[in-house]
Amino acid sequence: MTTPRSNPEEVRQKLPKEARLRHPADFDRVYRHRRSISDQVLILYARPNELPQTRLGLSVSRKVGNAVHRNRWKRRLREAYRLTRHELPSGLDLIAIPRGPEPPELEVLCASLVRLTRRADKRAREIRTTPPQHPHKP
RNA sequence: GAAGUGGACUGGACGGCCGCCGGCGUGCAAGCGCGGGAGGAAAGUCCGGGCUCCGCAGGACACGAUGGUGGCUAACGGCCACCGGCCGCGAGGCCAGGGAAAGUGCAACAGAAAGCAAACCGCCGCGCGGCCUCGGCCGCGCGGUAAGGGUGAAACGGUGCGGUAAGAGCGCACCAGCGGGCCGGGCGACCGGCUCGGCUAGGUAAACCCCAUCGGGAGCAAGACCAAACAGGAAGCACGACCGCCCGCAGGUUCUUCGGAACCGACGGGCGGUCGGCGGAUCGGUCCGAUCCGCUACCGACUUCCGGGUAGGUUGCUGGAGCCGGCGAGCAAUCGCCGGCCUAGAGAAAUGGUCGUCGCCGGUCGCGGGUAACCACGGCCGGGACAGAACCCGGCUUACAGGUCCACUUCGAGC
RNA sequence: GCGGGUGUAGCUCAAUGGUAGAGCAGUAGCCUUCCAAGCUUCAUACGAGGGUUCGAUUCCCUUCACCCGCU
Fold first, then answer.
1. What is the pLDDT of residues A83-97, one digit of tens each?
2. In whole angstroms, what is the distance from residue A109 CA to residue A3 CA?
3. Between the CA of A122 and the C1' of B124, what is the distance in angstroms?
4. What pTM did the predictor assign?
5. pLDDT category, A7, cuts 50, 70, 90?
6. pLDDT-derived band of residue A1, with 50, 70 and 90 as boundaries?
7. Is strand B in 7 Å reach of the CB of A67?
8. Which of residues 3-42 of A touch strand B (CB under 7 A)?
9. What is the domain-level CATH number for residue A92?
10. Does a structural domain hold residue A50?
11. Each residue of A13-32: b (16+ CB within 10 Å) or e?
């Protein structure tokens, strides 16, 4: 297995508070932006944040399971985010929502997170560069 | 040894690397170093307290909860010990206040009758009628009878003797059960004994209710402090000088046909200009400077202040009915004394990921032992319960792979 | 975290402690050339476990699931 931390450039893979979404207002802003993307594993809300770094928020509802189960999901998501943070585009606010009750293996989660984030970033860039076809009132 | 009963405990271990949360130290900072970081149920939120805010003279009523007795406790619906009932051969387990001889209510179906007692069948007596082998039998009516039948969850004591037309606590003896009195034991629930009474009083109060005791409400998202933005209130604030034109007007001068007309005009207002000042923008590398715009009032903007307090931040926030050990009191729950210890504090919410070694369980393969069940060793694969602190405690309830220990019971075998 | 509420047929709802019903849906039949409507018939349930009671969907306790409110 190729361990995700086998990059000699960045030995340290920290997860500081600045890389997390920590306030209800931040969550509201992302949800109001209404741009989501998903696959078999995750639903990902994304919004450009005009900041140098990307931030991740977790939303694991009680439908997923009991507290132990929800914590397992959140820890695995945080770990995936920590390990793949250097490959993710910057300047996005993300919210990750689990799709199924069972948390998948770490590698699957890493791959899903990277893929979804890149797609979200690409879409955000398209919207920003090309002016909207039918401009609606703000 | 087998089967069981009650209770206590444990909930993989060690290490490397990368992370997370908060603490201390250091550093301007980035960071670095040191040590700490889930549970017996942290769960459910079923009870009880502490703490905080609000409310409150006292009493009564209402409502809710609890209910054997004595104790423990801050308190409890909890715990301990004992009393009573039921279940179990037993170790033990389960249940529970009193009142249905205060009142109100309820009991489907079945059954004659379901709470006042009551007569469907049956039994007995009398009367009438019929039959007759004159013993009696059948039918109808009146009356007696709760011993027998059958129904039901439940039917007004049981056995025996006497008694009677047949029967009946109608009488008697014993038993069961009820009530009163006395004696003894116990703090008490209650237990034991003696005696008297009358033979009878049914069930359900986790139906209403009566009795006793307890209970103000809300909850750390309680509450406290700081405090953007927006809105509210108050105060401040810059325009000044001069010139020209126009308007209004106190007043004045001259003329007059006495109706008025002409001119001047302090003061106020409007428009325009010049100069100075203030503010802003542009040019310019910067100051100076140049150009342009605005500067009258209300309003607005701006500045300052005020109260309330939103977002946000800080606090409450972990040292407490605390934990460990020893001694003592007590059957015990528990309490006292002494010594030691500090042991998570987050906030879209930390306690994780990965690798290695060992241990446990299951499967499988090989080899060895054994008649066999099985056991030992080694290899490989897989698994590792229930479950995550959110102000803090005391309980209860529920969930839980595997494992450990203690006490006791019954049965079997041996000594 | 705290507070409150609800579980009855496939769905929506009833039911003084005594056989659990109604409407829609479903099955079968009648009617019709066929369908619809109508009529008749049938099947299906008290979330789970204990307790009180002769008897529990109903009363009490425990438990499970779901819903709502506070922020």
1. 999 899 988 999 999
2. 14
3. 114
4. 0.75
5. very low
6. very low
7. yes
8. 3, 5, 11-17, 20-25, 27-28
9. 3.30.230.10
10. yes
11. eeeeeebebeeeebbeebee
**What's the token pair of residue A14?**
């920290």
Domain residue limits at A97: 19-117
List the A16 CA – B357 C1' distance (angstroms). 33
Identify residue A85 by its one-letter amino acid code: R
Predicted confidence band of residue A12 (pLDDT cuts 50, 70, 90)? low
Name, in order, each residue with C-beta under 8 angstroms of A58's C-beta and a sequence gap of 6 or more. A73, A74, A77, A78, A95, A96
| Positions on chain B within 7 A of a protein C-beta | 18-21, 31, 38, 311-313, 347-355, 387-389
